[in-house]
Write a structure and sequence with these properties.
32% helix; Dihydrodipicolinate Reductase, domain 2; alpha/beta; lysine biosynthesis; cytoplasm
Length: 255
């Protein structure tokens, strides 16, 4: 679709019965330049997407099925915007190989669609080179299936890259005994702590420490509506970015 094309972009939503999926359906329906042509629930065959002639599919399902869904969509020439976590380096590499043989199809896998969360990840990578210590605390609702969150993993990786670029060594930590795992997970050398609590939606705190100083980055999503501007950005841009893009920042002008 070009900027002067009056024809709405045809969109399907997978996981339409979930909280994120229903919010995405509402956002697509309210967008004048988009048309929701298929709501795909758990029992619906993927063939309904092709029958609806969808150009872009938004996958908001669960980790157990997302890779299979995306493989099917790419095979059918349908661009994908994916918010489901659980992707591994192996599954991403398999997807890259598949996309290399199917010219022109774009896939966006976004650990987080909230614009503020994307900015926090980028800022964390920039700040990492200036501080001795860094840790990530992520807080989500208790129905979330994975821990740590995809956002926290990507934040930790961004911090690790920033530290490596600055020539920093391991984060200082004299802990010698931790039989109960109190220090949390370790992602690329960065400790990540996951909280699951009723009443939360999606929250992250990144703590940096130096001599006599602490610096914090924090992002809070209080409602799933906060993810929709990013979802719509992905839907509108994915066709212009063939191949695999990991992270919404790949579609944002962040320098």
């Amino acid at each position: 679709m070009t900027p002067t094309d009056p024809t709405p972009l045809r969109v399907a939503v997978l996981g339409a019965g979930g909280r994120m999926g229903s919010e995405a359906c509402r956002a697509v329906e309210e967008a004048e330049d988009l048309e929701l042509v298929a709501r795909i629930g758990r029992e619906d065959p993927l063939e309904k997407i092709a029958e609806a002639d969808a150009q872009v599919a938004v996958d908001l399902t669960v980790p157990a099925v997302t890779a299979e869904n995306v493989r099917w969509l790419v095979d059918h020439g349908i661009h994908c915007v994916v918010g489901t976590t659980g992707w591994t380096e192996e599954s991403l590499e398999a997807l890259r190989s598949q996309l290399a043989g199917v010219g022109g199809v774009g896939v966006l896998i976004a650990p987080n669609f909230a614009i503020g969360a994307v900015l926090a990840m980028r800022f964390a990578g920039a700040a990492a080179r200036y501080y001795d210590s860094a840790e990530v605390i992520e807080m989500h609702h208790p129905d979330k299936l994975d821990a740590p969150s995809g956002t926290a993993r990507h934040t930790a990786s961004a911090i690790a890259r920033g530290r490596a670029a600055a020539g920093l060594g391991p984060v200082p930590d004299a802990t010698a005994k931790d039989p109960d795992g109190a220090r949390g997970a370790v992602v690329d050398g960065i400790h990540v702590h996951a909280v699951r609590q009723r009443g939360l939606v999606a929250h992250e705190v990144v703590q940096f420490g130096g001599p006599g100083e602490q610096f914090q980055l924090r992002h809070d999503s209080f409602d799933r509506a906060s993810f929709m501007p990013g979802v719509l950005l992905g839907v509108r841009e994915v066709a212009a970015h063939p191949g695999l893009t990991v992270g919404l920042d790949g579609y944002m002008d962040l320098g």
